[in-house]
């Protein structure tokens, strides 16, 4: 879906319509809410709205055909700037804001924002995953937020607002977003022609928890493939942490740069559910699949020992979720989790199914 069209988040749209109509736009906004629900899409839509040359911005409905809209949709608008975590990195480095060391202060986002707009009446910057800014990057941005250019607008996006410096939060207008409704997720899938029909769209949306990203994972079979990978690689006599990490990272790499942190977060939740199923199977084998029940029976351990093993693994998965939330690099998180889960299984003396 191009930024020309927007589905959902009606309350936020109405709020911005009023702010634009009254000339009360802030110089900086902080978009918060669960991952994968459209915060970045909304920021893109707002940006295109403000650049559009044909439709009044308070309509919040850019035309999509004027020169500015065409530039925006082609990602070539000279007054639009974006920053996100570089692929497989843990932080957004200082050079993204101030340029490389040899040209410090003469390149980077903050230099660009200090210049006069080239084809619009303002420059707009979107900082995605803003909780991952390095300390130096955050402090450099703070100076710009304290003395904003009247010709600039900055939108920070995060699902972890408490990870930002309090001084940054206090200088941004907070906008909270909620998960999309199932019908809205289905509408987006259809509008973007990401599915063949309404029935498929509604089926994917019903299990997406208001997240388009999860719906797309399901559509592409990522959900099913990870579930198979987890059952095949984790539930065995001697899990191989190197092979586990390799396969998980390859699966994540297929998803591209965007949303890999979010997607691994979903994988962690799926893995946790796998071990919860095993815990339920210890108490009552009839509550799990035959395959899970056979695995549990084949471990030749007492119910107490199995409960201890599965509880330890669940605790380690929860720790991985905390590490991910604290912006640990995804590969590091994957590798550490794989090694520790394999160690738990080896200590428990699990045998092959």
Series of H and E elements: HEHHEHHEHEHEHHHHHHHHH
Portion in helices = 40-55%
Q: Using only CA atoms, what is the Rg?
A: 23 Å
Note poorly predicted spans: none
Strand content: 5-15%
The largest β sheet comes out as: 5 strands, parallel
User: What is the number of beta strands?
Assistant: 5
Mean pLDDT: 87
Number of alpha- plus pi-helical segments: 16
Order of strands across the biggest sheet? Answer: 2-3-4-1-5
Structural class label: alpha/beta
How far from one another are the termini? 45 Å
How would you sum up the global shape?
Answer: globular
Structure in words:
It is a single chain. This protein has 353 residues and is of the alpha/beta class. Helix content is 53%, strand content 7%. It is built from 16 helices and five strands. The protein has helices at residues 10-21, 39-51, 67-73, 95-98, 109-114, 135-146, 166-170, 182-191, 198-206, 212-219, 222-234, 241-254, 260-283, 290-298, 303-325, 330-348; strands at 28-32, 80-83, 123-127, 152-158, 173-176. It has a five-stranded parallel sheet. The longest helix is centred in the last third of the chain and has 24 residues, at 260-283. The protein is globular, with a radius of gyration of 23 Å. The two termini are 45 Å apart.
């Amino acid at each position: 879906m191009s930024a020309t069209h927007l589905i959902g988040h009606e309350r936020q749209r109405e709020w911005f319509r009023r702010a634009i109509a009254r000339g009360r736009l802030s110089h900086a906004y902080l978009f918060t809410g669960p991952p994968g629900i459209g915060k970045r899409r909304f920021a893109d839509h707002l940006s295109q709205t403000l650049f559009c040359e044909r439709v009044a911005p308070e309509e919040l409905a850019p035309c999509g055909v004027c020169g500015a809209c065409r530039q925006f949709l082609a990602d070539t608008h000279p007054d639009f700037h974006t920053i996100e975590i570089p692929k497989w990195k843990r932080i957004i480095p200082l050079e993204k804001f101030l340029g490389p060391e040899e040209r410090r202060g003469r390149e980077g986002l903050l230099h660009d924002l200090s210049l006069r707009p080239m084809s619009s009446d303002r420059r707009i910057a979107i900082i995605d995953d803003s909780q991952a800014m390095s300390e130096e990057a955050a402090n450099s941005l703070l100076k710009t937020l304290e003395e904003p250019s009247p010709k600039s607008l900055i939108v920070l996006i995060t699902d972890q607002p408490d990870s930002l410096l309090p001084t940054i939060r206090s200088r941004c207008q907070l906008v909270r977003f909620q998960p999309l409704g199932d019908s809205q997720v289905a509408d987006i899938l259809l509008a973007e022609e990401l599915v063949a029909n309404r029935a498929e769209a509604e089926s994917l949306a019903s299990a997406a928890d208001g997240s388009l990203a999860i719906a797309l994972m399901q559509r592409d079979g990522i959900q099913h493939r990870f579930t198979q990978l987890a059952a095949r690689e984790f539930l065995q006599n001697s899990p191989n942490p190197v092979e586990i990490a390799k396969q998980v990272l390859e699966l994540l790499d297929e998803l591209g740069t965007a949303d890999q942190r979010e997607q691994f977060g979903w994988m962690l939740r799926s893995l946790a559910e796998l071990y919860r199923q095993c815990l339920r199977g210890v108490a009552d084998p009839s509550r799990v699949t035959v395959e899970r029940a056979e695995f549990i029976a084949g471990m030749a351990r007492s119910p107490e020992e199995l409960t201890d093993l599965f509880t330890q693994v669940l605790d380690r998965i929860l720790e991985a979720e905390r590490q991910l939330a604290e912006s640990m690099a995804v590969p590091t998180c994957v590798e550490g989790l794989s090694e520790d889960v394999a160690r738990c299984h080896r200590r428990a003396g699990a045998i092959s199914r």
